[in-house]
Design goal:
Blueprint: E1 2-3, E2 18-22, H1 28-36, H2 43-46, E3 47-52, E4 69-75, E5 79-80, E6 85-88, E7 96-97, E8 100-111, E9 121-126, E10 142-147, E11 153-160, E12 165-170, E13 177-181, E14 189-196, E15 200-207, E16 218-223, E17 233-239, E18 245-251, E19 254-261, E20 271-275, E21 280-287
Parallel strand pairs: 1-7, 8-14, 15-21
Antiparallel strand pairs: 2-3, 2-4, 4-6, 5-8, 8-11, 9-10, 9-12, 12-13, 15-18, 16-17, 16-19, 19-20
Length: about 290
């Protein structure tokens, strides 16, 4: 096949452009997430073939002989196709893909404490709420995810141009951050530097209705979402010790919600806590109850 032309502000070729053949139809957001963090359990069978686009805009996909069709999508640093094109096999004519103009974002994470910057999840979502989200959990908001490398660097390719975005940075050893990103122009290449911070700490105890300590309860901290709690984002989790005590570190400053749970018990109510910039919020109490058996 080949890549069709569309008026472009950039004269240099997009050397990172590649074509993917998939076993089922998909949108570019799903493919971005797959490329950034390949977490699909069927990844080995979902991705049928992949090919680089040559400087002349041509590509060749060698597909399994037992396939009757494939779903083809183009993604690059500065262009993409929004959804897959179905190809019935054997393909008798040349497939032409015409990309939408996009932008490239390079992010660099830094940390003064010298802690690791690798493995931070970088999640991108549209800043505005859609009128018709996918489901009611806000899942349609996530554009794509990627992870930082050992140097704290990440490259986000095919970022939609002209769209205001929120960037969520979820490090492993530092506090999470939310960043608003101004819309990128078509074919723009933007570099962003993000300094990671240690964040605050929350300590407390998990008890039952009589005030007795509950050990081995799972305590999770969440950021509030935009869909009435259906899309709250989990930040950290830990377990209570033999005395029911827990400690959650590296939380972002501001309000978070805590919830405790344990098998055989009813989940605690949601407890909202103000996290200091670098200090500790102490004596948070979470109560579990046995409930009634049916």
């Amino acid at each position: 096949g080949r890549i069709g032309r569309r008026r472009h502000r950039r004269s240099q070729p997009d050397h990172a452009m590649q074509v993917l053949a998939l076993a089922s139809k998909a949108g570019v957001d799903e493919v971005r997430t797959f490329l950034g963090k390949a977490r699909r359990p069927d990844a080995g069978t979902w991705l049928l073939a992949r090919a680089e686009v040559d400087p002349d805009g041509h590509f060749r996909l060698d597909l399994p002989s037992d396939r009757s069709n494939a779903h083809v999508l183009l993604i690059g640093s500065l262009g993409y196709t929004a959804k897959t094109a179905q190809v019935d096999l054997p393909q008798s004519s040349e497939l032409v893909l015409v990309p939408e103009q996009a932008a490239l974002m390079r992010l660099t994470l830094s940390a003064r404490d010298g802690a690791s910057r690798a493995g931070a999840t970088l999640r991108c979502e549209s800043a505005s709420l859609p009128s018709n989200p996918q489901g009611f959990d806000g899942s349609g908001q996530v554009r794509f995810e990627s992870e930082s490398d050992s140097d704290g660097a990440a490259e986000l390719r095919g970022v939609p141009a002209g769209t205001a975005l929120n960037r969520l940075v979820l490090p492993q050893e530092h506090a999470a951050q939310k960043l608003e990103i101004e819309p990128l122009a078509p074919c723009e290449e933007r570099a962003l530097s993000i300094e990671l911070h240690a964040g605050g700490t929350v300590t407390g105890n998990v008890v039952d209705e009589s005030g007795e300590a509950v050990a081995d309860a799972v305590v999770k901290a969440y950021w509030g979402g935009r869909w009435f709690g259906m899309d709250d984002l989990e930040l950290r989790s830990t377990s209570s010790d033999a005395l029911g005590a827990f400690r959650l570190k590296a939380l972002p400053p501001g309000q978070v919600s805590l919830i405790a749970s344990r098998d055989g018990w009813l989940e605690s109510g949601k407890q909202r806590v103000e996290v200091p910039l670098e200090g500790t919020s102490e004596h948070v109490g979470l109560i579990l109850s046995r409930g009634a058996a049916l």
